[in-house]
Each structure stands twice: as C-alpha cells, then as structure tokens.
Amino acid sequence: MKKGFRYAIFATVVLLLTSCSSTKYVPDGAYLLDEVRIQTDNKEVRPSNLSIYLRQNPNSKWFSLIKTQLYVYNWSGRDSTRWVNRTLRKLGDAPVIYNAKETERTSEEITKAVQNMGYMGAVVEPIREVKKKKMKLTYKVTTGKPYKVHTIRYDIHDPKIKEYLLKDSTATLLSEGMYFDVNVLDAERQRITSNLLQNGYYKFNKDYISYSADTVRNTYLVDLTMHLNLYKQRSEDEAQNHRQYTINKVNFITDYNMLEASSLNSIEVNDSLHYKGFPIYYKDKLYLRPKVLTNNLRIIPGTLYNEQDVQRTYSSFGRLQALKYTNIRFFETMQGDSAKLNAYVLLTKSKHQSVSFEVEGTNSAGDLGAAAAVAFQHRNLFRGSETFMFKVRGAYEAVSGLQSGIQNQNYTEFGAEATVNFPRFMFPFISSDFRRRIRATTEFGLQYNYQMRPEFTRIVASAGWSYKWGVQRQRSQHRIDLLDINYLYMPWIDSKFEEEYLEKNENYILKYNYADRLIVRTGYSYTYNSAGQALMNNALVGNSYSIRLNFESAGNILYSIAKMARLKKNNDKEYTLLNIPFAQYIKGDFDFAKNIVIDNKNSLAFHLGAGIAIPYGNATMLPFEKRYFSGGANSVRGWSVRDLGPGSFEGDGNFMNQSGDIKLDASIEYRTRLFWKFRGAVFVDAGNIWTLRDYKDQPGGKFEFNKFYKQIAVAYGLGLRMDLDFFVLRFDGGMKAVNPAYANRKEHYPIFNPDFGRDFAFHFAVGYPF
Questions:
Q1: Which residue range forms the structural domain that includes residue 312?
Q2: CA 290/CA 286 separation, integer angstroms
Q3: Which end of the chain is more exposed for a tag (fewer CB within 10 A), N or C?
Q4: Distance in angstroms (rounded) separating the CA atoms of residues 680 and 731
C-alpha cells in the first residue's frame, strides 16, 4: 500500500511537469531555444572552453535533467493581474526565444576566440534543427591548420629594460615553434610588466609592449616582433627612457579619514615623532607603538620601488585589528637625475572596544533549552593591535528520558574563556627577520566550563598556546598548537547512575570517560584551498579543491618523565600527575574535497576523509572527545549523529559506545541552483568507524582487513539549501542503502526494501557538508 502511494505521488509529479507544454508562451513564428551545443574537429580546442562566448543559453535544468522552472512559468495563466500567475512567473523562468542576431554574434566571438588560439583560418557554422516550435542549435567549429611562430625578434630601445629582459629570458613564455596564441602573447606582456614593477619601474604598464606579426608567404609560419615603446607623459612630448624609481622617504599618518581627507593637506594632525628615521604624524595620541608600524612595513627607503613590497605592506597592516583601512600613496620627486618616490602610509583607526550579546536555542536529542553569552573585546590591548577577548556563557536545558530515581531533571552549564591574540610570532630566540617573513599570529587562551547534569557534575578547564599563519595569498593555512592542556574533573556522580552504568555493567568506555583525566597535547594542522579567498555567494568560483591534514600527540613528555622518575602506577595501571591519570595517544586525519563546475547552474563535489587515533603507553583508550563518530549532517547522512558503527555494531542506546578509533568517509554530491536563494543537491555517502581493540561493549566494532570493506555503510538522499550570502542553511534528508548492522540480506540492503520510519534521517545544518 505504501509503495503504491509513493508511485502515485511520483506519477502525479511527472504528469504535472509534462502536461504543460514547454512552448505555451512561445509566439507564432518564433522558436524555443531547446538545446545549444558546440562541436569542434580538434581535440585541442575544447567546447567547454568556448561556452563562455555563447550569447544565448536554453532554460536551465535542475540537475541537468529537467527544465523545472520553465514548467513552473508555464503553469501560470495568461491573466497577469492574478497573484497566482504573477507568483508562478516570478518563481519560474520565461522561455528563451531563439534570436538570430545573438547567434550571429556568438559565431563571431567563437571565431575570434579560436583564431586567437592560433587557428587563423577557423570557421564557425551555426546549424539549426527545428521540430515544431523548438530549435536545437549547434555551433560547428572547423579550426583548420594552426599558425606557428617561426622567428622571434625584440625591438627594444631602452637599454636598461633590455638588460632586465635578457636576464629574465629563461622565464619567457615565447618560443619558436609555439602556436601563434594571442592569449600567450598577452600573458607575456603581463609577465614582463610584473617583473619591471618589481624593479623600480613605478609608472610602467603593459600597454607599452606591442607585437607585430608577418606571415611567411604560402606557409603557416609567423615572424613575430615584440616592440617596447619609450615613455611619453603626453602624446606631444619627446620620447625618453622609462624612469626607474627609488624609495626616498616613508611617512606614517595614523589618523586618516578616507571620507573627509581628499588630499594630504586636508589631513588633520597636530603632533609627530621620528622613529628610526621614519616620520610618524598623529592627532592627539599615537594609538600604536612606533615599532609596530615599522615591523609591518615592507617598503624600505633606499631600495628600488617594488610592487610586491607594496602589496605585502597592505597585507601586513590588514592583519592588524586596531586598523580599519590602510591606504598607500606615492609622490614623485627628482634629486638631480635620480627619480625618487616619497611614500605615505595612511592608516584609519578602528573601534578598539566592543561588547556583544548572543542568545541561542538548543536542541539536544529532542530536549529544548536556551543559552546566552556576553563577550567583551579589546582590539588594541598593549598598543600593538593585540586582541583580547573575554566571554561568559550560560545554558539551561530540561532533560527527559532519565532513569527513575534521579530527582533533578535539569542541565545547567556555566563557562568563561579569555584569549589574547598577538599579531606576530611570539617565541624567544627568534630573529626579527624570521618574524617579519612568517607573519604568524600567537594566541594564548584559558577556558573554564562547569556542567551540572542530573547524573553528574563535570568541570573542564583548559589552557592553550598556539600559532597560526597563512601563505600563498591565503591558499595555505598552518596552525601549531604548541601546548594544549585540558583537565577533566568529576566532583560528583549520582550513586544510582554510577551503580547502573559504571559498575554493574562494567562498561570500560564509560568508566574511562567518567573519571578525572589530564590531556597535555601538541598538534599541527595544515589546510590548502586552491581557490584561496575567491568566494562568491558561499560557492567556490570555478574548479577547486581543498586538502586538510592534522596530526596531534598527547602524553609523551609526561610519560617519559614518569618512566625516568620511576613513579608508581595507580590501580588501573596508569601513571598519574598529582594523582590525576593522563591520556597518551597519537592521532592523524586527512581530508580531501574537490568541486567541479559543470556550468553556471550545476556542479559536482567529491569528498574523501580518513583518520586514525592510537592510544598507547599510559592509556588503553582515547578520551571521548578525541574519538571518532559517524552519521550526522557532515558524515553518512542516512544515520543520525553518533548513530552509525563502529563496524557492524548496531548500537545499544548509549552514544558513547558508538565511537571509534578509525574513521573513513566518502561522498559525492551533485549540486544545482533551483530558484531565488534556493539550491538543491543529490548525494551518496559512504563510511563507518571502527575500534582498534575488541571491546565487549562494542561487538563487531574492531577493524579487520578481511571484514572492514563489508562494514562500510552507504546512504543516498536529497538536500535543500538556502544561500543567504553570509551563510547557508542546509536541510538534508538521507536514506540508508547499505546497513552493516544487519547480516540478513533484506535488512543489510534497505535500498531494495526501504522502510521510511527505520531508514530515513533528517538533518539541519549551517554551511555545506564539505
């Protein structure tokens, strides 16, 4: 009966989509542009590279299959005064009507693009196939034989620039025998310009470089000549060699208002000082230490102008939270025959102190609650753009489903944290030159969390010392946790809870994680994103990929000290520090994600993740916070969070038992733009977790090479996302396809025998899953 109902719904949706003619609003004598393709006779000229020149594209398809928005538009009636019809037209897409003029312009642009690749005899022929009121349009590209560069000559009359080009000749993009590709020629102009801008040529731009090309008669060969024009300030001036500029003076103005000051003369200053030869002008009070200004400066007096130094200076000052804007201006001056530049670094102060309030609702396994926090932030604590943050948080939740006999039914949490972030590498015996190059931030932090549950009271205190820095235009990010200390203290446990769960069943995982514990760890993480900061509407622009590596180790130094000091072990055969046992483990994680853009509406995303954590020495188990779990909005989405694994373990209602030491995750997701702010997705997830040891409370959870691949869970589903520019709201519904918890074939493969109540999981999250 259920299957029949689902089939009826599916059939109804299909009929609704197809019953309305796609050409309902196509005028007589016109054609719906149904399909557009590009065909080339040359494998080196890919149609995908030419699609950007299409002036008309057909109506978009959801998941590259169905023109849903066109059908929605066609559901509307012809009476545009009715709100229903206006709404349907707003949600849908009007039919794309074939335009002959746009086809002609597209043909011209594709022809020009292919010719610029070196195929000077390229021809583009639009082929039209008409069926009733629909048209399929194919652009047939015949490239012909490519033209190649026969010889290269250089027409350069500026001797100094000629000398620079000869020194840099090994990096040239031009070579005899290359295709006569206009794009490569332009890239070479840009490369030369960038090189000269790094060597003092402040006023140089690529328009000073041009080419002339002569074809050899009756051949496909080109004699290429590069010309470098001499400098002219005005067209009527006499041509002269390009000036090479040296930095003369660098001045700081710390109270610059971009909205009020249009020239240097209008900037309001009333005091100044000189620090190591750098004039610093300010109003009333200098809010940054002079050393902070000079340490972040990359423009050095007496050196040639270098565009990269200017960008590095912008980047360095942009990291300072005490500043809102940075602007750098240069003014020319002549000293004899030498061209000089006076630089002015104009700084705009930010608001240094702020207080913020946060209120949130919580939902833990169906139990509703509320939390509130207040935070104070100071962005210039020691006049060096140090950021101090102090935050207090409180939460309350009514807990249900507790065992009988427990009187208190409430969960209360209080917490406080304080961090100080220094915009520099803070470590003794490190040279100032190294600190300038690495551009790291140093953070010291303290946290305290007091949790009062009906079953126990827990205190978590932590302290940290870490470094973060980025390179390659923010594509790479590094983080070192030099020291991270976490102390877990259990001052009270309900006697009934302790008897039932910790002692009666002798659950080793529970006992280990409901005891006092000290974790002293160090760690390193590396993140690389090929797109850097090139983000648009929370989606990466173009094809991209990201890699994340993480490694951490805990307890090794303490264990070495305990061994050397020959300290005694406690009853659980663990070394202790001040009678507190400490954890010892190593942990490594790898994560890879790739985004492939199909067109401006559709993309394909892949994800692969793996991790392993090994307890050893002073520990036979990982602390719960360091164990892996599977299922949830960012894992295998056919299962709820912490509801899958380990291995073939089907769970016993205790989420602690559904954790492990090894994790594998893989996903593939097809993403499409729907309408307005909505995006859709179809996904398939696979993965699971396993333990390294055979625990009696996790039967079937141990990782074994001859079994683990049979225990990989698989899920499939649909997702709806609302892209609000600053963040993405995500709703995913997943169904189990392969369930390793069951050996019975019917239950092991629920994809063939789905049970919605048993196999469906709904997830709400913020942001994309990977």
A1: 245-349
A2: 9
A3: N
A4: 10
Task: Name the domain count of the chain.
Answer: 3
Task: State how far the Cα of 255 lies from the Cα of 346, in Å rounded to an integer.
Answer: 8
Pairing of strands 148-156, 221-228: parallel
Domain membership flag for residue 300: yes
What's the CATH number where 308 sits? 3.10.20.310
- Crossing angle (nearest 10°) for helices 159-167 and 182-197: 110
Is pLDDT larger for residue 268 or for residue 473? 268
Comparing CA positions, the residue from 265, 45, 262, 223 lying closest to residue 141 is 45
- Residue pLDDT, tens place only, 746-758: 899 999 988 888 8
Average pLDDT for residues 117-131, to the nearest whole number? 94
Q: What are phi and psi of 39, to 5 degrees?
A: -120, 135
d(CA 595, CA 769): 12
Strand partners, 765: 730
> Residues in the chain, how many?
770
Among 202, 228, 254, the domain-final residue is 228
Task: Convert the pLDDT of each residue in 84-103 to its tens digit.
Answer: 888 888 888 889 999 999 99
Structure tokens given for 440 = 């790291």
CA dihedral sign of residues 688, 693, 697, 703: positive
* pTM above threshold 0.70: yes
CA pair distance 425, 482, nearest whole angstrom: 12
Residue 611 inside a domain? The answer is no
Domain end (from 300, 317, 349): 349
Quote the radius of gyration of the chain (alpha carbons, Å).
33
Locate 297 and state its tokens.
Answer: 């400066």
CA dihedral sign of residues 238, 242, 247, 251: positive
In the chain, helix, strand, coil percent, each to 5? 20, 40, 40
Per DSSP, the three-state class of 19 is helix
Kindly tell me the sign of the dihedral angle through the C-alpha atoms of 308, 313, 319, 323: negative
Cα separation, 312 vs 300, whole angstroms = 12
Joined together, the tokens standing for residue 582 give 């400490």
Domain assignment present for 464: no
Q: Are 382 and 416 in contact (CB under 8 A)?
A: no
User: Could you tell me the end-to-end alpha-carbon distance of the chain, in angstroms, rounded to an integer?
Assistant: 38
Same domain, 49 and 123: yes
261 and 339, same domain (yes or no): yes
Backbone angles phi, psi at 71, to 5 degrees: -65, -40
Residue 239 lies in a domain: no
What angle separates helix 68-75 from helix 83-91, to the nearest 10 degrees? Answer: 170
Point out which residues pair with 293 in neighbouring strands.
none
Secondary structure class of 593 (helix, strand, coil): strand
Considering the domain architecture, whether residues 29 and 133 belong to the same structural domain is answered as: yes
Whole-angstrom distance, CA of residue 510 vs CA of residue 13: 50
CB 96 within 8 Å of CB 67: no
